[in-house]
Every structure is written in structure tokens, then in C-alpha cells.
Amino acid sequence: MSKSGADIGFLLKKATAFARQHKKMEAEALFLEVLEVDPDNFQAKKGLEALVSLSIPQWHFDMLADENRNFAFQRAIEKFVSNDSNVLDLGTGSSLLALMAARAGAKSVLGCEVNPDIAQVAQKVVVMNGYHDRVNIVGKHSNQIEMGVDFEEKFDVILAEVLDTGGLGEGVLPSLRHATEHLAKPNAIILPSGISLNAVLVEAKRLQKVNPIHEISGFDLSAFQDFSMSDTYKPINLKDEPHEKLSDVFPLRTYDFRNLPAEIPFDNPEVESYKVKCTASGQLQAVAFWFDMHMGDEASYSSGPDGELVHWQQAVYFFEKPIDIKKGQQVDLQALFSDELIRFRLT
Ligand SMILES: C[S@@+](CC[C@H](N)C(=O)[O-])C[C@H]1O[C@@H](n2cnc3c(N)ncnc32)[C@H](O)[C@@H]1O
Question: CA spacing 20 to 30 A to 345: which of 10, 44, 260, 324?
Fold first, then answer.
């Protein structure tokens, strides 16, 4: 039975509503249904195009605009990649670092990207830039790539820009553990070669109202807390957020990606204790932390509030109950480290 204009209108409305709710598969099925009966339907074509962006986290754009980040990788790649190098770009995204490795002369480059929509576009980017003779993209998680299927020879260099604001949240430790054990040659170069985490105690009054959310304009909004990611850090640019520093910056810990620690599960974290001296009086509400990214013996780059890597911002972990502290007082802080998450407690 053929569909009338009214049917098509209804399908388009429904598809658009699904798209707004980020229900990609449902929206896609309806847009395709419209195109089956009306192959030139403009709204359905545009709707399908727009769906692609739903599966792409929009921070990719901000990340690609971070020239210091890009340049830090370019410098290191130009230093460590040679004509003999087989390079794995673990988490290739747009394929930017894979292309840098090819431009630096790499013999072969494999970019792997877990998001199939991104992988498809990355392959297109590689072709558009004329590097498809040496750069291959696979739409797989790095744990699933196989020698003899996806690549022929183990890798000399692994690029792993899979760092979130807190450093570990995108799974850099488990991904690199697998890659160094199964995909890389012994003593392969890993970039970044490691990260050092630094922290500072802060008062951030404006945000305390929503961490956890309680009274707003005289109303109890605490039920809204269900929508908040609790017991985790939030990416915040401290330069834009009014706050007071209540301590000096102190080191949390360093990870050497060439000498990875054993797996630390979420439910059995490693606990480290810190005695932090308060340099100002105030309400201790949060710990802000960030990473310095090391590139072998190259310079290090910082995602700190005064650092070069701007797109990451800083990771801010709010305590459930803030405490009043006095200048000169010592605070006993614990950090709970697991493979992909860092949390804090006051003891
Ligand atoms: C932070 S982005 C960086 C993209 C690119 N490397 C760059 O520097 O411009 C990380 C990308 O890696 C992908 N990813 C993260 N872990 C991965 C893994 N273990 N295997 C494959 N892709 C991964 C994510 O989907 C994301 O697109």
C-alpha cells in the first residue's frame, strides 16, 4: 500500500522526535522508511545526516582545536617515528595522529577506533589526505585487533591519546596493558610515555549548591540529584569558575605507561593517603586535579589551570560534605585509585 503525504509527515515527525531523544536506531529506521517511498525527501535525507553527529562526542572538535595538544604529539611523533616504524594509533578518532605518523615517514600505520561511525570517517580523511597507501583504519576496540588479520608485524610505536580530564577515565591503562602485551614489540615507544597527576584543595561556592544538589531559590531540588554523576569528578575550567585555592599544588601519583601497574578493579581500589597543609581558611569543598603528559625525554605538557593543554580542563571532585578549615591546618585526604576512576575521601 502506498503512503500518503500525511503518513510521510507523521513518520518524519516521529523520526525527528526520536532523534531529539538521541534514539538513533529508531529515528534511522523511520527516516529510511520515508526514503523508501520518497527517495528525494529532503527532510529525511537531512535527518539521516544529522543522526551521524549524535554518535560523535562533541568534545572531539574542542580537542582538535587545541593546538598545543596537537603540537605536543607532532613534536614527539617527529622525534620517535622513523622510516622503519610500524605505528599503532590506538583510539585514532579523526586519524590526526595516524596522519602525523605517516607524514613523519612511518612504514605503516594502523589506526583503530572503537566507534564505527568515527572509524568510517577517519578512513575517508586518510584517503582525502593521500596516505591510504600506508595508513589503514579499523573500526574495532584495540583489544579486538589481531595480528595476521588487521596487521602483519608487531608495532614499534604506540600512540595512545585516550586520556580524559582525570587522565585514566577513557581506559588508557587497560588498553595499553593489552596493547603492550599482545600488539607491540618489546621496548616499543609509547606516546604519551606517562602522566603525572597533580591536585589542589579548593573552595568553589557556586558549584557546591549542585554537588550534591539541594536548595535552589528556596526549593528542595534534592530529588534531581538522581541525574547527577555522583562519586566522580567533573570537567571544569578553573579559569572560568570562581574558586579559592586552599592549598599548594601537590603531587598525587605518576603512571609510567612503559611499566604499567597491575589491574586495579573499581571495587578494590588502591588507597593513598596525603597530609595536605591548608594555605588559606575557607570551606573545603573539592579536590581539583589534572595531569602532566610526558613524551619520553621531550618536554611535558600540563592540563593544569596554568598549563598548555586547554581542552581537557580540570577534574573537580566534590566531597559530599564540605568542611571548614583554617589556614595552617593539616587535612587528611585519601585518594582511591582504580584502573579508570579516581575518587577522594576526607578522613
Ligand atoms: C581522546 S580521542 C583522541 C583521538 C585522536 N587520537 C586524537 O588525538 O586526535 C580518543 C578516541 O579513541 C577512541 N578509543 C578509546 N579507547 C579506545 C580503544 N581501546 N580502542 C579503540 N578506540 C578507542 C574513542 O572512541 C575516541 O574516538
Answer: 260
